[in-house]
Write a structure and sequence with these properties.
heterodimer; A: eleven-stranded mixed beta sheet; two-stranded antiparallel ribbon; 43% helix; B: 57 residues; mainly alpha
Chain lengths: 456, 57
């Protein structure tokens, strides 16, 4: 069985194992696999041991902090932790990233009892792509170590898929949680924009960036999102677990199909929709309004805001950036203020059209990416951009979750997005949970992980 | 590489205080037409953008 928060929580409370034993187990798995996968950029073995021991003492004394009590969690190395500096996958140095403080989400996780196991690999500044000469920095996919784990929250995705922690924390600007989730066969949630605090997270594009969870199940994502959002977020989105276990009867479900999707992706999406329809969802085909302009607006926004965030470093440390990163960010210098404003206006226009679309729908499903994870040494940015279907939802800020729905012909996972109305995160979590009750894709284990467990 | 794109890009980078090496300027100039195409695509939404601006009276 794979490590889920729910299962681990039951084991901890039944006394089957302690938080310290759970940490030891995942740490050993990390020892054996991370030479191949490169999930961690820093492991916090000492502080994690202390946190797990404290969790055990608290449980023994009757203090239970809730479902994350004693649960191992990896944090993307774009998010500050008190254990050490944030490197953000770059050679660029910024004194502001050195401060040993916890980001708001890390404070929230610790308060909920989570054991922070370390910092996970990120694409450079959450925007770079794998490039020759720097591939040793990338996380590799547990399903095939020659393939990419996705970006930018690569380590958090690969680590969950490999069972090295029960939840990974990522950030998503144009798809950086959903893409590694799809490529690694796990669940990734981009929460409603503004639901989760970002203080202490290095910004890429402040009008697009969100922080969110990567987990094995939607039910686990609800637990982690509740902790990440903190009290203020809970006030805005309500009980995030309220729709777990829901019926799909009468659910109004839109399906976006794209002709460019490969036959395996199309077949998996068809099968997933059939499952949902068979459980009572009322399905109809939809076209996302102004798809191409919305994606253009995301890219223009990302270039402009990313350049604004990193202007000083680009001026002073140009050669410290990776080639792809500096060429992406510098495009912001080639845009005018009017271009940026027009992108913002375009996003607003699409947002209003999508509000209309949701008058007759509860959720919309679509491919997360229309192709499986590419080989790490053969990534072409244009090809990649053409296959990823995540940007659209980033443009408008709705909650969207990626769940595994099968495998392509190279036995690599494929994912489906389920998108809902703003602040109806509980609905997308509930529909994703219902789908996972009907299927077992999320219980599949990468062969290399199964082999390591067999040796243990 | 069209000379005009190269000039536009080099000037914009200079104005932004950036001093990349020639190969980066060339790559950015090569990507410049696609960047302008992205911006042009935003215009497709002008007709549905009927939200009054905050500045309008």
């Amino acid at each position: 069985m794979e490590l889920t928060i729910a299962d681990a929580g039951r084991g901890l409370r039944a006394g089957t194992f302690s938080a310290t034993e759970l940490l030891t187990e995942v740490t050993r798995l990390g020892d054996r696999l991370d030479g191949t996968l490169n999930v961690y950029v820093a492991r916090f073995d000492e502080s994690a041991r202390r946190a797990a021991a404290a969790a055990d003492r608290e449980l023994a004394a009757g203090l239970d902090r809730g479902p994350l009590h004693g649960i191992p969690v990896g944090v993307k190395d774009l998010i500050f932790t008190r254990e050490g500096p944030t490197l953000a996958g770059t050679d660029v140095r910024n004194p502001a990233w050195q401060r040993p403080t916890d980001a708001a989400v890390v404070s929230n996780l610790r308060a909920a009892g989570a054991v922070i196991t370390g910092k996970t690999t990120t694409a450079e500044l959450a925007v770079g792509t794998p490039e020759a000469g720097r591939l040793e920095r990338e996380s590799r996919n547990p399903w095939d170590a020659d393939r990419w784990a996705g970006g930018s929250s690569a380590g958090s995705g690969a680590g969950v898929a490999a069972g090295m922690f029960a939840a990974g924390i990522g950030s998503d600007t144009g798809g950086s949680i959903r893409l590694p989730a799809a490529y690694c066969g796990i669940v990734g949630l981009r929460p409603t924009f503004g639901l989760v605090p970002r203080a202490g997270t290095i910004a890429l594009s402040p009008s697009l960036d969100v922080v969110g969870p990567l987990t094995r199940t939607a039910a686990d994502s609800a637990v982690v999102l509740r902790a990440l959002a903190g009290a203020d977020g809970a006030d805005r989105a309500g009980d995030l677990s309220r729709e777990l276990g829901r019926s799909l009867r009468g659910l109004r479900l839109g399906v976006e199909r794209v002709p460019e999707a490969g036959s395996e992706m199309a077949a998996c999406l068809d099968a997933a929709v059939e499952e949902l329809a068979g459980a009572g969802a009322e399905v109809r085909e939809v076209e996302l309004p102004h798809y191409e302009p919305a994606v253009s607006a995301v890219l223009v926004t990302l270039f402009a805001e990313g350049f604004a965030e990193h202007t000083v470093a680009l001026r002073e440390q140009w050669s410290s950036f990776g080639v792809s990163t500096r060429r992406i960010l510098a495009q912001g210098a080639l845009l005018s203020a009017a271009d940026y404003v027009n992108a913002r206006k375009a996003r607003g226009a699409v947002r209003r059209l999508v509000i209309d679309l949701y008058r007759d729908l509860d959720v919309i499903v679509s491919a997360t990416a229309i192709a499986e994870a590419p080989p790490l040494d053969a990534i072409d940015l244009d090809d990649l951009t053409a296959t990823i279907r995540t940007d659209y939802w980033s443009a408008i800020g709705n909650p969207v979750i990626s769940v595994p729905i099968g495998f392509g012909d190279r036995d690599m996972p494929l994912g489906m997005q389920i998108a809902g109305r703003p602040f109806e995160d509980a609905t997308v979590l509930g529909v994703a949970d219902a789908y996972q009750q009907l299927t077992d894709w999320h219980q599949r284990v990468p062969p290399m992980v199964a082999a390591e467990r067999g040796r243990a | 590489m069209p000379e005009r794109e190269l000039e536009i890009v080099a000037a914009a980078l200079r104005a932004a205080g950036l001093a990349p090496p020639p190969e980066d300027i060339g790559a950015l100039a090569g990507a410049y037409p696609e960047l302008r195409a992205l911006v042009a695509r935003l215009g497709e939404l002008e007709e549905v953008d009927d939200e009054p601006s905050p500045e309008s009276g």
